[in-house]
Structure prediction request, 209 residues.
Amino acid sequence: PAAPAPEAPSAEPARPPATRSLVVPLPSPPPPEPQAPPPPPERLGAFWIAFEARGFPESGTWPLGARVGAVFDLPRPLRFGLDVGASFASGDHPSGQAELWLLTAGLLAAVRLEPTSWLALAPGVRVDVGYATLAGRPTEGSTRRGQGASVALAATARVAVSPSERFAIFGDLDLGVTLLGHRGLAGPEPVVATTGLATALRLGFALTL
Prediction:
């Protein structure tokens, strides 16, 4: 018998031409810009109450008392304040004893500085206008009484520490001069007086409005 015819080789399927992929990296988004810290909350001011020690070194008179007031925030960093206070002092002399009652109202203009979130400084000036009553218990007729208006102008500075947003502990120091004052005399010598150099120290607390 005849040998079978050889089979023709099968044609391989055509392959697509090789392609090279080109990967283009997309630009990464820019990092977010840092956000500014939120502005501090707006304040109307603060209400405060304090123990007060006043001084008139010329006559050795050191009235003690209390004071209450309020400060109001104007366009930063200005502040305006109003306050009232009452204080008492007495003096002894061989001719008798004199007592001083002093009622005052104060006007304050200051600049508020905040080095940190918990510390504030407020230098400024203040005017105290008041009424003084000088009463004596004389042992002789040379002890004189008196009463009348009192006016003092002083430079002042406040340092306040705030353990919270609405509460602060503060200290004030005033140094100035009395423009109008009075003396309680025993003979020619003053027993109590509101004249000459005027100082004040206040320690208290404030509540933010």
User: Anything to note?
Assistant: The CA atoms of residues 13 and 19 lie 18 Å apart. The two ends are 122 Å apart (CA to CA).
